[in-house]
Write a structure and sequence with these properties.
Layout: H1 2-16, E1 19-20, H2 21-28, H3 33-42, E2 45-47, E3 55-58, E4 69-72, E5 75-78, H4 83-93, E6 98-99, H5 100-107, H6 112-120, E7 124-129, E8 132-137, H7 140-152, H8 171-182, H9 186-200, H10 204-212, H11 216-228
Antiparallel strand pairs: 1-3, 2-3, 4-5, 6-8, 7-8
């Protein structure tokens, strides 16, 4: 009898692809929730992350996307299970982290609450980018890589390096530029940002400030210092400094010597 109920549930799900608990109860004529859940567990079921987990399917039915998601009749499932766990996994495997808005668009449901709970549990890291918070992996090494790529993707405007623009600069190169920038001290960062702003020309201060996620006034100050030359050039001697020059003795003129 128990095996018959299990087979009935399986047949119903295979036919409809997704079902609710009430639909199962009606179909097998059994109102005992615990019995049905036990049978679903034996069938390796999945519950939807949308609709408060109201819908069920079999693990063999979904054809998951590259992100591990599947939908049927506007009901959404994930190979990672719950919405909370799905958010955590997507953030961990992402190249540049995700904002709540981006996750909302991907998952087609509101993720604000599960993301907040993940943050409170220390399972993700948050940082501000462009007026919104972006969620990164709690793994420090992964987080650093994600944040570098996020910075390199932050602006789609023209960013020039010499005669190149964003249309031909790879994400890897932009990430390398930002990584190099992160190794400089405060003064060097300001001057380097100013240099890149000069290369761009009009609007360069704002663009570079966005790219490096710094204050626009900092870029402007660095640019002005470079243009005016009003900054201390460490490692370069000022005129007149250093060891005094040594005068060489003039060689005697022997062309007019008389021979004796």
């Amino acid at each position: 009898m128990e095996d018959i109920k299990k087979q009935l549930i399986k047949d119903l799900i295979i036919r409809n692809k997704i079902v609710t608990l009430d639909e199962i109860k009606t179909y097998i004529q059994n109102n005992v929730t615990m019995t049905i859940m036990r049978k679903l567990n034996e069938l390796s079921y999945l519950s939807s992350y949308s609709h408060r987990g109201k819908y069920y399917t079999l693990g063999t039915i979904p054809k998951f996307s590259n992100q591990g998601l599947w939908s049927y009749q506007s009901v959404y499932f994930s190979k990672y299970g719950t919405l909370k766990n799905t958010c955590c996994q997507l953030i961990n495997i992402s190249q540049a982290g995700y904002s709540v808005k981006e996750l909302d668009q991907i998952l087609q449901v509101s993720v604000r609450l599960p993301v907040l709970n993940l943050f409170k549990e220390g399972k993700l890291f948050r940082a501000p980018f462009g007026g919104e918070e972006v969620c990164f992996s709690s793994n420090k090494q992964i987080m650093k890589q994600q944040s570098i790529i996020r910075e390199s993707q932050y602006t789609n405007k023209v960013f020039t390096v010499g005669k190149l623009s964003t249309q031909v600069i790879t994400d890897e190169l932009k990430a390398a530029i930002i990584l190099f920038y992160s190794t400089l001290n405060e003064k060097q960062r300001r001057l380097y940002a100013g240099l890149e702003a000069i290369k761009i020309g009009y609007g360069g201060d704002k663009l570079i400030a966005q790219l490096f996620n710094i204050n626009q006034e900092t870029v402007s100050k660095g640019r002005q210092e470079l243009v005016s030359g009003d900054f201390e050039k460490q490692g370069v001697r000022k005129p007149g400094s250093g060891r005094p020059g040594i005068k060489k003795n003039a060689r005697p003129n022997t062309s007019n010597r008389k021979t004796t």
